[in-house]
Amino acid sequence: MDLQGTSFIGAGRGTGGAGEARAVNPVSGEKLDPAYHAEGEETVEAVCRLAAEAFEDYRGRSGREKATFLRSIADEIDAVEEEIVARMTVETALPEGRCRMEKGRTCFQLRLFADLLEEGSWVDARIDHADPGRAPVPKPDCRSMWRPVGPVVVFCASNFPLAYSVAGGDTASALAAGCPVIVKAHGSHPGTAEIVGAAVRAAVTRCGVPDGVFALLYGSGRTIGQALVRHPAVKAVGFTGSRAGGRALMDTAAARPEPIPVWAEMSAVNPVFVLPGALQERGEAIAEGFVGSLTLGVGQFCTNPGLLISGREGRSAFAERVASLAAGTAPATMLHKGIASAYHEAVDTMISKEGVESLARVEAEAGNNAGAVVLGTSADAFLADHSMADEMFGPATLMIEAGDEEAMLGVAESLEGQLTATVHATGEDREVFAKLIDVLERKAGRLIYNGYPTGVEVCHGMVHGGPVPATSDGGSTSVGPRSITRFTRLVCWQDFPDNLLPTELQEDNPLGISRIVDGARS
Amino acid sequence: MDLQGTSFIGAGRGTGGAGEARAVNPVSGEKLDPAYHAEGEETVEAVCRLAAEAFEDYRGRSGREKATFLRSIADEIDAVEEEIVARMTVETALPEGRCRMEKGRTCFQLRLFADLLEEGSWVDARIDHADPGRAPVPKPDCRSMWRPVGPVVVFCASNFPLAYSVAGGDTASALAAGCPVIVKAHGSHPGTAEIVGAAVRAAVTRCGVPDGVFALLYGSGRTIGQALVRHPAVKAVGFTGSRAGGRALMDTAAARPEPIPVWAEMSAVNPVFVLPGALQERGEAIAEGFVGSLTLGVGQFCTNPGLLISGREGRSAFAERVASLAAGTAPATMLHKGIASAYHEAVDTMISKEGVESLARVEAEAGNNAGAVVLGTSADAFLADHSMADEMFGPATLMIEAGDEEAMLGVAESLEGQLTATVHATGEDREVFAKLIDVLERKAGRLIYNGYPTGVEVCHGMVHGGPVPATSDGGSTSVGPRSITRFTRLVCWQDFPDNLLPTELQEDNPLGISRIVDGARS
After folding, report:
1. Would residue B265 show up in a list of annotated catalytic residues for this protein?
2. Does ipTM top 0.85?
């Protein structure tokens, strides 16, 4: 397709007017055509009105209709895979294989939500029958289920240009819930966004859902991003990005006359604890697995392991091995200049702290290149300086030597909320393992045994969430079918005639879904 | 029991130090013994530390253990019913029958959550099995479920001294989830709170759960209430009360370094729409039912119907009938002076608005007496002045004459979030009914057909929630089993050996609960 450099608004395209910007090839620094035309705040009003109107129609569509729409989006994306790969590799420096895999994940997610809608039980229908004869007052008939919350704003993630961007997990789950989606594009991959946006638009047309169900806006996060979150028609927000960015949106949303939820996935250092028995039994293998996880995708994953904690015994050989493996990795280009410079700055800041030593630092070449970094410190030093737990987004980790069990538990207790926490253990580590997991359960959304945090499986049991600052709300997950309820609210119908109830709540269960009837699952 | 006038903190009692206050008999104005000793901010630190310590133990208790504890609380409350009734009637002016019924509801809720825990499926366990042979990367084993979030602060409601206070719905659901609870007593019924607090304390001792699982604090909402919500150990808040009070807590919670959810149930006018067919067919019965709902409990329910909307035809006879029925009701004493004076002020303010006429106003006698009030206005006037939708907490309602269908839909569309929305209709009203319900579904947590909003059934299908300002979060309910998830977060265990998993997630399902395994409900 010919890229036009404009937003998708309703059935048409934006006209810009608030400046323009080009994507940059992070390898060469070359500016890419076309220029992308930023929309201004006046566009926000129009887009939100369209979304609110579309909601009136779209929320009434059946699960099957919405499923067909999601499948159609996936099909349209499949059809432009080559175009996506061609543009995405140039815009992001991500290798072709990763682009194809992420395209696969994106379409898999869309189809997983389609499956969920076709099966239908996700609405959590609950029915209590009336008892007109009950004393002292009759018992009413009460039936309730999840319903869509309204228009949702999704902010594209720079590190997942497909799977957490235009038609990524947030968009898929919001559309599945029955909510129109307004996507705010990320400036680092506007062309990839436009190709995917065109695919979604094609599916909108093909399936006959209202045009306002999808919009894709180019422009500044500080202006139109904030304006979208403030707009009264917007009822929820999905965001994947920095802690500062997420917090700014959370604060804006909380200050509204009608506060709305911001489902923000922000910041984590994903600690990996290696207990003594495990270190002794397979320190070499753990070092290898760890460095693989650390350097995967130039460390640009929210689940990248930024802390590696082990005991004193065997630590020096382990640290040497981790450092030497890391030192043997090649530097690579990061997603964009902003990420690369923030990475180098974060590493420099960490190295300058008292008690931190550099164990390995792969020299980056010019441009947006980054190499693996392994730093070391003691538990005492770490506990004395809270900022050592700050995220260095990229392939850098801080190894912490914890002299004894108490020090290791102290490190765990000191941590803020995390997406993941990993423990390597053997049967010999049983006692300290139990204590450690007890602490880590309070800290993380996902606990990993003898593994590594990168690689987030898209499945029913997954939790990609965790207490603040990992996400804005530890109760949620942004990956997997459960993420759909982020964009819903509960509604109860009391004493309604059967033919006026939503299909999911009708007495004879025409959809054959699993429901809770008079307290028991049917 | 001899009331001591002090807080419950750990295994002991508070010593106060931040002033003292006595409850007031709202009928006589007489001050009641004993004086209640307010705690200051320094107590907050100690109480939160105890709760955090207790969480470490309590969250590991099995569902059966927690169920036993909840049943024990209910038993202890049952055992002091006479003491509760004796004190509560004097503190609140609520009639004996209401006190007994609310005691019954409170114990019913505690036992309902005990049932839920014993059955066990509420944790929403989801299991995806590993596929080590999957290409290009092996699929991990992922298992997840709801886990308790941590210490919870519950603010007692003045209008439900039992069912939404010390051992009410918020406390019961938080304890069921596995969270310690710190209750902030309401100043209007401190003695009732102390009796119930002693019952909970007795159950804590009897069941051997940690002392820090429960605390009851007397003191100022502006000082210790705010300090509790700011404390880092506190992970969620339950509140039932005014919009201003709820919003103040929401703002404090949102401004924390780690924002936490405030589950606030605040303000609603619970519109009742009477469509033309229904008015013609049974206007008389609707008037009777409506006035009964309006004046129940001196209108001191969050579901009190504050708006009554009908068309022009037959409106004047209907309005006359509503007014005459309301005029025939007796004034009664409200819960406390603050509520009574706020009620009179709100009614006076509403009457003074342009286009509002008084149709009936039962004169209140001296003291904290309040009588039913019926006001009237037109849809045009209502739509021109947004403040006409403000809540008058008490037995007052505003009748709106909507000239045509469009006006009625306009009124519905203009409303803020509501706990309930009611429509009276017949088959003849089918078309306008469908349009109206479409609007109201976006506005309310519970839609009622041909009924009245007061009376909130405690059952699985109930939703007592609704968009802001009805509650702080339209996704939730504060009544019924679903309310438990407000105090939980999701945790995933990846690749854990079976014996290290929580019982709910172990392979052979020792608890026999309903789970989702590899995407299908088992």
Report:
1. yes
2. yes
